[in-house]
Every structure is written in structure tokens, then in C-alpha cells.
Amino acid sequence: MFAVQFDRFGSPDVLTMGEIxxxxxxxxxxxxxxxxxxVSPVDLAIRAGTSPSAKQLKLPHIPGxxxxxxxxxxxxxxxxxxxxxxxxxxxxxxxxxxxxxxxxVLAFWAHRPATMPxxxxxxxxxxxxxxxxxxxxxxxxxxxxxxxxxxxxGVGSVAVQLAIARGAxxxxxxxxxxxxxxxxxxxxxxxxxxxxxxRVRALVDTPIEAALDVAGRGSLSELIDVTGxxxxxxxxxxxxxxxxxVRISMGExxxxxxxxxxxxxxxxxxxxxxxxxxxEAAFPFERAAEAHALAAEGPRRGKIVxxxxxx
Length: 311
Fold this sequence. Notes:
Blueprint (H helix, E strand, L loop, with lengths): L1 E4 L10 E4 L10 E10 L1 H8 L17 E9 L11 E5 L12 E4 L1 E4 L6 H20 L7 E5 L4 H12 L3 E6 L4 H7 L2 E4 L4 H8 L6 E4 L6 H8 L5 E3 L11 E2 L13 H10 L7 E6 L3 H8 L7 E5 L4
Parallel strand pairs: 8-9, 8-11, 9-10, 11-12, 12-13, 14-15
Antiparallel strand pairs: 1-2, 3-4, 3-6, 3-15, 4-5, 5-7
Helix pairs in contact: 2-3, 5-6
């Protein structure tokens, strides 16, 4: 099968298109003919060799953990999909990749709504899982007020919408050029940086009951200040958090509860017109190096996606 791959760590230029043995669905998994695959921060770190997880990889490696496409193999024990179904989801996280290929094996999935663009579906799996996981960890419920630091990117923009769907009020931070974007998502927007507690208190007249750090910009002390407790703060991006008593959400690989049940919730919300997956740009597989370079430039407005040739 054809696949985006790299045989050495480095800049986006190490990415090439080539042939690689086909993957097949084992028990509890499905295989899809890929139509679109997301580009996530973990893909960039693994390709560059800066992630500790990169040391365990066997090269060549196929990047990508999120994909959407058509089911063409169903593993033993799987009963909720059939060959020909349109789905989106995520590969087995322990594999650290495999989605940017002609075929990909998914470990969890949901049916793609007929009106959801394939590019959105291909970008959504891990962002939805992560956002669901942290909202569950923070026990976000109707009537609560949540602060999301880094609300315009792939996970942040999804977390804003899922929190609002739970009935929460959301304050989100982003750069100056993304303030209108956050407002369109339904958040109360403000900017990053020093003075965040004062800006937030000027915006809302109710207590901030929980805070999520997506950005990893060293804001945890300020988030503790805003909420009044380290127990009310969760990060997915600042791995020095434990020194401040802040929880780090790393998912099932770390033995924590996962959020894969959120995929079906997000699909239902999409059909109700209450959710979408922001996509900043889409590139064909052959331009994967350009996609990775753009993704590395800085804060995103949603996700970057690769689209597969249809054979």
C-alpha cells in the first residue's frame, strides 16, 4: 500500500511517499480505506525525533493517528460496523502512527455523519477523545464556567464546543488574531499572557470553577489563581504540572480513563448543528512535508489535514 513515511528523524523534508506492507484488522479493530488523515502535534514531535516515544519506533514509520474513510475489513468481535460504512476515528495510540496511508487500522471509531466533510472527520478523532477525557476529568456540567487556555487549536476548539454542549460557559484564550474565531465557537474570548486572572475576572461575573491548559505556555500558576485550587486545573501540555499539584491528563497509555466515547457524542452534535471540527488547511498526501511545516509554525486555528488519493 502507499503511505506517507519517513526512514529517519528530522525536518518535514524527511517525509516521502512510498510503498509499505498492508496493515490488517485484528480482533476488536477495523481497517479503513483512508480518505483523510489529521496532522497532530504528536506527529510533528515523533517525526522530528524530539518525543521520547520516538525511540521505540521501527523505521520507516507512517505518521498520523487520526483518519476517516470506508471500512474494508472488520476484525473479530466487532459488531457495530460493516464493510462499506463511512467512519472516523483513531489508530491504536501505542502504535504512534499509521493513519497517513492507503489503509489504516482503527482502534476506536464512530460513524461519520453523511453531511460531515471527510476532512473534518479525518482531523477529529484524537482531539475529540482528548477533549472528552479532560472535560470528564474536570467533571464539566451544566451551569459551570470553564477557562480554556489555548482554545483556538485542534483540541482547544473542540473542547470549547463540547463543554458548551454540556451546558457550560467557556472563557477561551488565544492570540489577538483568533479572538473573533473563539467568539464564533461560542466562547468568551480573551488573550494569552500576563494579567490573565485580571482579564478573566473583568469578563465574567461568576467564579471560574475549572481550567484546562492546552497551550503549555507556563500559565498554570495563573490558572490556579483564577480557579482558587490546583485541583480545579488540568493540563495536557505542561509536564512540570505535578510540582504545582496540577493533574496531567495523558490518557489510556498512562492508565487513565479515556474519552473515546466522545466520538459518537460529537457525531450526534454535528448532526444537530452544534459541533464542527475546524480545519485550517488541507493538503494531498504528496504534500505532507508542507502540511507538517505549516503545523509547526505556531498556534493553529483548528487542524491541518492530509487527503488521500482515491484508487
